[in-house]
Amino acid sequence: MKTHNHLRRRAAALAAAVSVFAASAQAHHSFAMYDLNKTYVMTGVVVRVDPNPSHLQIFLAPLNDARDQVIRDSKKEPVVWAIEMEAAGVAARDGVTVNNFPRGAIVSVGLHPLRNGMPAGGRGKNGLFKCPADTPPPPGKHCDSVKGATSHGHGVLPKPTGPLPMPKAK
Fold it and tell me: Would 143 disulfide with which of 14, 48, 102, 108, CB 3.0-4.6 Å?
């Protein structure tokens, strides 16, 4: 009987541990930090790609509406937004890799911004398009309008709920 009670206690402890990890995984993959009531579309230049196993991130410097310069802050430094996507392995199946999105590539993506106002957002189910090399979209347009652009993964570029906000000067 001692063995049976020991096994029962171990099973209960294992079940408790699994429920704790499941809860933390659910919280980790929550979209609570993003404002799902706001949707922006950004066209920008890839600064870098971080192929983190948990969430791949693309860092973009947004282009101005004329599509001829990156937007800069009050110190004349490029504004950089972090776009969080799915896990690197999932993103790779959609062709989103460090090699396919090199520094300088021009992309357009739909995103939900962080609630805290920082220049970052989550892609969610929004589209991601890459313009052909050295071919920005026409003024006011996005990569999905450029002949030869490629779509990566799911979704289309959404209708934005407003203009892309820029971070406040520090």
Answer: 108
Q: 92 is written with which tokens? A: 């790779």
Report d(CA 128, CA 110) in Å as an integer. Answer: 7
Q: Which amino acid is at 6?
A: H
* Domain that includes residue 26, residue range: 1-30
Q: Which of 93, 92, 110, 85 is nearest to 160 (CA)?
A: 110
Q: How far apart are the first and last CA of the chain?
A: 68
Is residue 80 within 8 A of residue 128, CB to CB? The reply is: no
Query: Reduced to 3 states, what is the DSSP secondary structure of residue 61?
Result: strand
How many angstroms separate the CA atoms of 77 and 138, rounded? 24
Residue 52's pLDDT band (cuts 50, 70, 90): confident
* Cα distance between residue 130 and residue 106, in whole Å: 6
Four-residue CA torsion sign, 107, 112, 114, 117? positive
Asked if residues 27 and 20 have their Cβ atoms less than 8 Å apart, the reply is no
pLDDT digits (tens, 9 = 90+) for 92-105: 999 999 999 999 99
Query: Is 69 part of any domain?
Result: yes
pTM of the predicted structure, to 2 decimals: 0.80
27 confidence band (pLDDT: 50, 70, 90): very low
